[in-house]
Amino acid sequence: MTSKVDEALSYEQARDELIEVVRRLEAGGTTLEESLALWERGEELARVCRRWLEGARARLDAALAEEEAEEEESAG
């Protein structure tokens, strides 16, 4: 489950932290428990990023639909 703190992260903050998590996992040298904690954090951050991107897509779709409707009204 995503925490309130994670929900307050901007897309860029979540993405940057996710990049750092992936870098640490790829570098190795962590215990199994640390690796699992990093992986879980990465999953949470990926969900935050996905929500931001889905929200952006919805806003773009709405804007495009509104523009299409306006064009149809002026053409019709």
List the helices and strands and how they pair.
Layout: H1 4-8, H2 11-27, H3 32-75
Helix pairs in contact: 2-3
For this structure, the CATH topology is Helix Hairpins
Compute the number of structural domains. 1
Q: Cα-atom Rg, whole angstroms?
A: 19 Å
- How much of the sequence lies in strands comes to under 5%
The level 1 CATH classification is Mainly Alpha
What's the rounded overall pLDDT mean? 93
Supply the CATH architecture. Answer: Orthogonal Bundle
Sheet/helix structural class:
mainly alpha
Number of strands: 0
Element-by-element helix/strand order: HHH
Low-confidence stretches at least 5 residues in length (pLDDT < 50)?
Answer: none
EC number: 3.1.11.6
Main location: cytoplasm
Catalytic activity: Exonucleolytic cleavage in either 5'- to 3'- or 3'- to 5'-direction to yield nucleoside 5'-phosphates
GO molecular function, one term: exodeoxyribonuclease VII activity
